[in-house]
Amino acid sequence: MIALPPVCDRSAAAALYPEIAESLGTSALGVDAGRVEKIGQAMLQLLVSAARSEGGITVHNPSAAFTAALALTGLELVILEGGIAA
Length: 86
Known about the structure:
By secondary structure, the protein is of the alpha/beta class. The protein has four helices and six strands. It is globular, with a radius of gyration of 11 Å.
């Protein structure tokens, strides 16, 4: 499981990219979005790419800010396609 930081800006996306890329496979990658307070375009792009990978991603504990950003950008279906885990 990869935990997203409170501020998911470009530098956070760059820092998490190697870990996310290495963790992708045939099984869904767990992403904990419970601490997200702010999320930017770079992190959203990284999550879209991961969601479209073979195994996809499963979002756990999405914060209100995370959910609002997905609704604002219209990315709910792309990023949450695999569903939200409790």
